[in-house]
Amino acid sequence: MPYIYFSQTNSHMSNVIVNRVIDFLKKFPPFSFLSPELLSQVAKEVDLVYFEKDEFLFQKGEPAKNYFFVVKDGAVKLTDFIDGEEQTIELCDEGDVFGVLALLGKRPYILNAKANENSLVMAVPVGIFDKILLENSQVSLYFASGFASGQVVVRSDLSQTQKVRSLLVNNSHQNGLLLFPGQAAINYSQPVIQCRIGETIAQAVGKMSADKVGSIVIVDENNHPQGIITDKDLRNRLIAKGLPYDTLVEKIMSYPVITAKKDLEFSQIYLNMVKNRLHHLVFTEDGTNQSKLIGIISDHDILLSQGNSPAVLIKALQDSSDVHEIAKLRNQAEGMLIYFLENELAIDFIAGIITEINDTIIQRAIHIAKSRHSADFPEVCETPFCFLGLGSEGRGEQLLRTDIDNAMVYEDVPEALEENTRRFMHLIARDVMDILFASGFHSCPAEMMANNPEWCQPLSKWKSYFSHWISKPDQQSLLMASIFFDFRAIAGKAALAEALTAHVYEQISSEKIFLNFFAKNALLNPPPLGFFRNFIVEKSGAHAEKFDIKLRAMMPLADAARVLVLNHQVVGVNNTFKRYEKLAELEPNQAELYKDAGKAYEIFMRFRALEGLSASSSGRFIKPDSLGKLQRQLLKNAFFPIDEIQKILRVRFQLDYFGK
């Protein structure tokens, strides 16, 4: 029988021990979320209970007690009998909370709890927490998300798990970078200054002048937006060309007009404007140009509200031809990345902005390189080419300036021009990479970069590469495929990348066995947790005792998503969490799992980026002991979809029967 170490009897002793209980509990979630007053109330109700080694606190199937537990000293293991043998499911040490079924539904216990060594445990009465759960959203979210030890994490919990990230950080107050996290109110202009198709420029300018605005939306008879005229259009398309003021508006308007729904999140609208280089975004009832006009927002409106913003940075990069200035601007982007992460902006938004910045740097680098070398290669300087991002950059997931993988593909030319074309393309690739290195990006250790002549080739050569990898899927070919199959057109002639994609799918269709090999390869990375649900860490070397979040958490999900979208012949979706979104559409019966896999990947990206920024590293290796208990449990919850996704690969590609 357990020995009751302390119960609330002697008042003087009670006050001393209550203070010690408060000092202990306030270090650990969910007690760390309580106000001092509430924590004091809880501490007064806590009993300290001593258990001898191997003594059961409770057993599977027993009715839930009217209290839950927190380990004070020692350790408690949660076990289950599997095939007649007792197996440890989880080991709870100092500060771990367990036995919470008394708090959540009062169901029978689903595991055994046994003292792994002589242990002192705090028993917290359920009654004191009933009111707290109703009134404190942080505490209820902690339990609802499956953070207590021994809870069975179900798929729906992962959406709650994402919300808990906000409990882990203190928001910064750099108002100059404020980006309206979440569903922000968008102050768009309404009613919109407009005129009809068939009206003259004079009529449109009169309306613009009367309302002192720099743009006017052109609508049809149904009030559907058809185009837009700005001050710039008037200068370049009317005055510069000497057209009369009775010219019809449709002759000089910009069209088609880009539209959106007004109830979209600000981040989606903002990213839409950045990606499409829009100065104005028009809002309609259903988000298309086939419904009524209801509002408009300009980049000027955004900049006034934002102060320092990605749009300003991207515009500065687009206008720069100085390598040192480009490097300086990329350094500024790091500050924005830190702010975005600290303030819990959505990862897809952050990744979209950073990808746009990186792409803009590459586009400017190509412009600079062509300006340097085109005069020396007049016969071949207009040969179409496409700069490809590979790996994380190809997937639009490179938040940190880690090592970069990329390549160049150019159009095949007549034999007489091959040597000059090759020399010109290699010079372009060399200069682009030099600018990227000057901007703080790291060289790929395996030299899978465009400045390596092997990866700067004409389209025919690239097709032969992919044909070889697909038709002869040995270990080296599968490694190449896992890197190069995520290629994305960043600059140049996108049709070359599209032709390569078409070739890839054509080859896979004729070599169907390739996907079985590729799926087998996707299962090579070991699971993230060991037998006792501890993080599997590196055993030796520079990263000993650290967890490899890239190898053990991110790559299994990225590799699986790649195989599954190839199997569905999905084109144009490279990003891992967007791939899982697409898979959820394509396979409704697995939709919840795929959505959770995407959410898990976003969580891993955030953890890695924060680690990299704090440690000035790639963020790949994380010391589990440096994480708080809530952070460790957050990661463990996010590991759940990995095993389930890998099970799908095993079944779908019959990998249990597939040869080595």
Automatic annotation (TrEMBL):
Residues 188-247, 253-312 form the CBS domain. GO terms for molecular function: [protein-PII] uridylyltransferase activity. It comes from the Bacteria. Keywords: CBS domain, Transferase. PANTHER family: CBS DOMAIN-CONTAINING PROTEIN, CBS DOMAIN-CONTAINING PROTEIN CBSX3, MITOCHONDRIAL. PROSITE patterns: CBS, CNMP_BINDING_3. This is Putative CBS domain and cyclic nucleotide-regulated nucleotidyltransferase. It comes from Cyclobacterium amurskyense. Residues 30-150 form the Cyclic nucleotide-binding domain.
